[in-house]
Amino acid sequence: MSLLKLDGIHHSYFTQTTATTALSDISLDIEEGEFVSFLGPSGCGKTTLLSIIAGLIKPTEGTVMLEGQSVQESVNKIGYMLQQDYLFPWKSIEENILLGLKIGGTLKSSKIEYAKSLLEQMGLKGFETQYPKQLSGGMRQRVALVRTLATEPKLLMLDEPFSALDYQTKLKLEDLVSDTLKSYGKTAILVTHDIGEAIAMSDRIFLFSARPGKLHRTFLVPDELRKLTPFNARNHETYSVLFQKVWKELESLESREEH
Predict the structure, then answer these.
(1) Which band of pLDDT confidence, cut at 50, 70 and 90, is reported for residue 257?
(2) Is residue 215 situated within a structural domain?
(3) CA distances from residue 181 to 5, 54, 88, 184, 187 in whole angstroms, order as listed
(4) Is the confidence at residue 33, as pLDDT, over 60?
(5) CB burial class (10 A; 0-12, 13-18, 19+) of residue 114?
(6) Domain harbouring 205, CATH code
(7) Is the dihedral angle over the CA atoms 238, 241, 247, 248 positive or is it negative?
(8) How far, CA to CA in Å, does 8 sit from each of 199, 222, 226?
(9) Is 62 left (phi over 0), alpha (psi -120 to 50) or beta?
(10) Can you tell me the distance from the alpha carbon of 73 to that of 86, in angstroms, rounded to the nearest whole number?
């Protein structure tokens, strides 16, 4: 059984005078331990779909099942990492990473140790008593990831988490996140506008067309890239071939929209 199953997702936004269809007939399965990306032109409903998977929005039609349960029953199994780190400035780094556990009522010593070991793995040992304003953007995103992973979610949602960072920091963080998720066997969905990032990090890429958002095509990332770190994958010849393929497909979708 797939970890996550979307069946016939259709979503419309209603006002008093209009109905706008944001998503149309989306069905897909994601396996445990898989890293997938949602890619597509602006307005294709990627973030709406992420909100539906997270149980924040109920779709107009269709079902979302996580481990055979509806997502409304599984909200505590889902972790979110966003473009902004949303760390509390008045709390220390240690207090920030333990926040999810505290809210969930699971602040046990074993969980605290796990959170601290994640912090060490992220190269942030010794920063526990510091405050967010004392850290760089990349370090703050690492803290945000630790806070998300500390609750041991079954499914991780990454909504453009690297887009506000400079390029060098972004590349380093891609490697770190990829390595961490693989070592813990985590399942993740990345929403991104960056084709290169999607190829370098994913097992599969779901390409969506816009207005209404539909699943246009699925790309399987070849084994030779999946074995490499995201940074090294970018230097492999297969990467360029797949990049061109995805780029052309995305271009054709965008030009179709313009006409």
Answers:
(1) low
(2) yes
(3) 20, 19, 24, 5, 8
(4) yes
(5) middle
(6) 3.40.50.300
(7) negative
(8) 26, 28, 29
(9) left
(10) 25
Domain count, the chain: 1
| Burial class for 36, CB neighbours closer than 10 Å (0-12, 13-18, 19+) | buried
Exposed e or buried b per residue across 81-108, where buried means at least 16 C-beta atoms within 10 angstroms of its C-beta: bbeebebeeeebbbebbbbbbeeeeeee
Q: Is residue 212 part of a domain?
A: yes
CA 242-246-250 angle, to 5 degrees, is: 170
- What does the block give as tokens for 86? 């949303």
> Model confidence over 179-208: pLDDT tens digits?
888 888 899 999 998 999 999 999 999 999
* Residue 205 is assigned to a structural domain of this protein: yes
Single-letter residue type at 47? T
E strands in 164-257: 187-191, 204-209, 214-220
Contacts of 87 (CB under 8 A, 6+ apart): 93, 96, 132, 140, 143, 144, 147
pLDDT digits (tens, 9 = 90+) for 126-182: 898 999 999 988 889 889 888 888 888 899 999 888 888 888 888 988 998 898 888
**Domain limits for position 27:** 1-74+155-164+189-259
Asked whether residue 178 is assigned to any structural domain, the reply reads: no
Closest CA to 200 of 165, 174, 237, 169: 174
Q: Please, are residues 169 and 17 in contact by the beta-carbon 8 Å criterion?
A: no
Strands across the sheet with 61-66, in order? 19-30, 4-14, 61-66, 69-70
Instruction: Give the pLDDT confidence score for residue 258 in this predicted structure.
Output: 61
Residue with tokens 């890429």: 205
